[in-house]
Amino acid sequence: MANHRLTGIVLVGGASSRFGSPKALARFEGETLAERAWRLLGEVSDERIAVGRAGGLPFSAVVDEGTGPVAAIAAGLRQAAHEVAIVVPVDMPLLTGDALQLLAGACRDAAVAQAGPLPCAVARSALPAFETGERRLRTVLDGLDTARLALDERLLANVNTPADLATLAR
């Protein structure tokens, strides 16, 4: 069930250089990775924002003003209507609503899983930390009051290549 006090932010991607084509449009279990992440965020939040390249997506996306996840999260937080945002990368197709709710519930300035830095929950009030010019997300999160949670490692599987996606599909 959607939490009416959460914003969901999906990072739909950068160059996908290791993947060879836009990861957001890769298919997994009958839907694109972007559709899957968008649906998941709809299960846990009442507002969803996509950030990144919008080409071929079935929803609009905010363009970030830099490169990497720090700039993308900043762009999403600027648009967020709620104090807490759940941030998911498009390339973690095994995430669950329960895992995202745990992150949201633990959020102080931020909350991350043990493998971090993504997925994460970030308080909108932490936006200035994302606007300092720092490009490393882990560094930004380490400078905040960040809760660290142990989530099931399988849920945190990250897809960087078509072979990674094929392995998850098995």
List keywords for this structure.
170 residues, alpha/beta, 6-stranded mixed β-sheet, globular
CATH class identity: Alpha Beta
> What distance separates the N and C termini?
29 Å
Task: Give a count of the beta strands, DSSP E runs of length 2 or more.
Answer: 8
What is the tally of helical segments? 5
User: Could you tell me the strand content as a percent range?
Assistant: 15-25%
Quickly give the structural class.
alpha/beta
- The CATH architecture can be named as Alpha-Beta Complex
> What share of the residues lie within helices?
25-40%
* Most strands sheet: 6 strands, mixed
**CATH third-tier fold name:** Spore Coat Polysaccharide Biosynthesis Protein SpsA, Chain A
Q: Strand order, biggest sheet?
A: 4-1-5-7-6-8
Using the alpha-carbon principal axes, give the shape.
globular
Radius of gyration: 14 Å
Question: How would you portray this structure in words?
Answer:
The model has no long low-confidence stretch (mean pLDDT 93). It is globular, with a radius of gyration of 14 Å. Helix 1 crosses helix 3. It has a 6-stranded mixed beta sheet with strand order 4-1-5-7-6-8. The protein has a single domain, classed as Spore Coat Polysaccharide Biosynthesis Protein SpsA, Chain A. With 170 residues, it is an alpha/beta fold. The chain contains 5 helices and 8 strands.
Question: How is this fold's topology laid out?
Answer:
Blueprint: E1 3-13, E2 27-28, E3 31-32, H1 33-44, E4 45-52, H2 68-79, E5 84-89, H3 97-106, E6 110-113, E7 120-123, H4 137-142, E8 146-149, H5 162-169
Parallel strand pairs: 1-4, 1-5, 6-8
Antiparallel strand pairs: 2-3, 5-7, 6-7
Helix pairs in contact: 1-3
